[in-house]
What we know:
By secondary structure, the chain is of the alpha+beta class. The protein has one domain. 15% of the residues lie in helices and 41% in strands. It is built from three helices and ten strands. The protein has helices spanning 6-15, 56-66, 119-122; strands spanning 2-5, 20-28, 42-52, 82-83, 88-91, 94-111, 116-117, 143-147, 151-156, 159-164. Strands 1, 2, 3, 4, 5, 6, 7, 8, 9 and 10 form a ten-stranded mixed β-sheet that branches. The longest helix is centred in the middle third of the chain and has 11 residues, at 56-66.
Amino acid sequence: MNAITRDALQSMLSDIRGATFATLVTATDPKLRKTGNPLGNVRKVSRVNVTLGFQYEGAVNRQRAREGSEADFQTAPRQWGTKISPMLIEHKGKVYLETKIERSLSHSFIDADGKEIDSKMVEPFLPARTPSTRQETEKEILVRDYALESILSIAIRGEEYVVIQ
């Protein structure tokens, strides 16, 4: 496995053209409800297969066509951030990687001491997920933006990188 800095990762991702598959390992802060939450600070470590550099409108329209619906979906303007490359977003001084989730491979929750927490203890404090109604699809096209600082490793184009710094 190769080591790569966040700046080098950003540069590498900026140079990619076209849709590209990748596997990410990320550490994010889930938005846990505070009321009655005894867990304190919790990190979610996820391993996901994603598509980078995809066209959201096209992905939704292809899904609609597969489901026998009219492929006339139009993308609304982005609600936050500015695209700085086909897959990177800048917002308030931070850079995010725009992804289309293909498959969640695994996830775990870690407490402030780095100890794993049983998912059953965390689930009651996770916010309810509300699926998109704009897409009008049975299978939702899931888009997630990951801050580059939350990416621990990436496997892309036959290479694996651990992100340092």
